[in-house]
Give the backbone structure.
Amino acid sequence: MQHSVSIKDLSLNFGNVKVLQHLDLDIGQGEFIVLLGPSGCGKSTLLNCIAGLLDVSEGQIFIGGKNVTWEEPKDRGIGMVFQSYALYPQMSVERNLSFGLRVSGMKKDEIEKRVSRAAEILQIGPLLQRKPANLSGGQRQRVAIGRALVRDVDVFLFDEPLSNLDAKLRSDLRVEIKRLHQRLKNTMIYVTHDQIEALTLADRIAVMKGGVIQQLDTPHVIYNRPVNLYVAGFIGSPS
Ligand code: ADP
Ligand code: MG
């Protein structure tokens, strides 16, 4: 079977510090994988390696069967959503969504089609002419998701996209991300330190500690049969 994303014997060192250690991870087409673990365990580093924002020290990354270990981020077929929204402050929402497509030289009517589809899916149609400063945190994060959506990529990467939001918005947007996945059926790799997010969103959860995956399984199995005290303690403690 061809995997959507395959990570083979991946290691990353910052100087002498081994941040990721011989990681292997195979992700199926359309699977929602959550990387879960406490701050500093290497979740963002792993995501940034997959995105091509960091060079690996050792190992290989395959996306759609292609070895992308040394490909540019823009050539990997991924879209990334960060914790901080990283929108262009001087551009309207419409411009924020279309900018990358314009730069790539896409035809105007195709750009319009994609922007209106993303606006419809994320329910941000009425906001298209606003600037980011005039949006709420939740609305900004929808626009950030929209920027990945218009690119029509196979793989979405999320790095703690809800961490800056208050509890109510966090649960609303969590439901929406789940709905988005059910509609698009693309592969999603989602980083969080929040057990509830992981248990409610994931098809499978990879619980990480010190740059190593401790357990990779469904929420049901992780919750009911943690492989060790670390996993049990982390899943059982409130976030
Ligand atoms: P997480 O996202 O799980 O909180 P990170 O992937 O950000 O963890 O960080 C993993 C480890 O790597 C941490 O110990 C962090 O201090 C270290 N680290 C992250 N980025 C750098 C960097 N640019 N240089 C040196 N160490 C780093
Ligand atoms: Mg992080």
Q: What stands out?
A: Residues 43-44 surround magnesium ion (ligand 2) (CB under 6 Å). The helical segments are 43-51, 93-103, 108-122, 137-149, 167-184, 195-201, 219-224, 229-236. The first strand starts at residue 5 and ends at 14. The CA atoms of residues 137 and 165 lie 6 Å apart.
